[in-house]
Ig-like domain-containing protein (Helobdella robusta), 315 residues
Amino acid sequence: MKRLAGYELYQDGIQINSSNSSGDFEIVGVNSAYHCIARNEFGASMTQKTNLTKAVKVLFHRPDITNPTTVQFQTSSFMRECKPIETPIVPSPTYRWFAGVNENELKETSWLQFGEDGAIHMANLRDFPWKHTIKCSARNTFLSLEANSSKTQIILGNETALMRFRPAFMTGSGRQNGGQVLANAGEIITLKCLFSGYPTPTVTWLKDNAELPDGEWIEELGGTQIKNVANLTKGHAGRYMCQGFSAGSPSAVYAFDLIVITPPTFASELHRPHNVNATEGQTISFNCSTDVIPDTRTWFRNAEQFNCGSCSFFF
């Protein structure tokens, strides 16, 4: 094997360092993408890009005090955010909610869910067993730091006749990502959908305007969540719709797209790139047909990205 001529380090596509020895580099910049190229007289080889992101602490705006919140009706819906000072937090924090004098940790139910941003959503307060205070905590697992929000006191009305509220969408999968859920092939995921209203709405699911395929998903927490039975494949991808129903009221609907990301594989051996012998001036073609979602292909020549203005690419 020939001796390597040298290594080059790139930050966000711009060369920032070089070495003729071990290829070890000291990196001080954060929130950037890095890759390395090793070269010798036979050519070059490039590593995949590595993203370096700075971890930040978790702090809340307010001290830990009680802030009363009056709720007019016992059957009203309820939403409370859990927002630390540092947003966005890297890595994304894990959120937990606690309620009551003993600060019992809350779990998701058919009428209570946590949003992707850590907010708490309750379909109605009639089903909420703790008529006291709630608070949230955000934990940065990388730095092992945790912060608590202020407490919120829930004061219910004393009406004797319970108000009825028609279903309305509160929170669900993909809400924070433009109506899209991205998941890797092979994963087990949970899709969520919660509607406010009283009586507590029931939830049904559709995929591509049809009932869910038999044996593909299982319902949990009264139908407000579904989980795939087998590992995700491209067959799970599609347009999902959840509907909230309550007796005597019009239904509410929420829809989102599930996109299953698959690793790049060649469609067949015939579509794999092969060596081509050619004479000067001859027109040649290289096959690179992949079975991948999303479909993004980049060509390289001698480990450098190849941009050819006179080339034709057929996908």
Remarks:
- The chain has a mean pLDDT of 80.
- The chain has four domains: 6-52, 66-155, 173-261, 268-273+284-315.
- The chain has no helices and 25 strands.
